[in-house]
Prior knowledge:
By secondary structure, the chain is α+β, with helices and mostly antiparallel strands.
Amino acid sequence: MADALMVPADPERIVSAFLREQPELADALGDRIYTTMPKDKTYPLMVLTRWGGEVPPGGPLSVEAADVQFDVWADRKKQAQDVAQLVRAILAQRLPAGDSTGGWITGAASSAMRYAPDELVDPPRPRYVFSARLTCRSVALPAP
């Protein structure tokens, strides 16, 4: 009989679902929290993207640090800033998030935010960006 298989957590899926459940963000964003930019956009919106991370040297795959970038676009600069600040506060104060089938996010350390207007649209759209290092814990799939 094979041992249970440890599958790394999917931080984009876990965190986007967790953030959609937060009442303050439901008021600010509705369900517009994505892992890829939608074709049809309604603002404000947020996209989170995993861009890196690491498994501790010599450590098991069951614990991983994931680097995730959060981009918040809005119609006004203050609106984008307020939503980004709210997301950072929720990550700092309301974790863990996840479930027994997909893994857990047990901690987050956020960077400072920066204002980065999106110059790919005319006129440039207000956007705030920050990243977070998320501590991820995987779950064991049942042995076959």
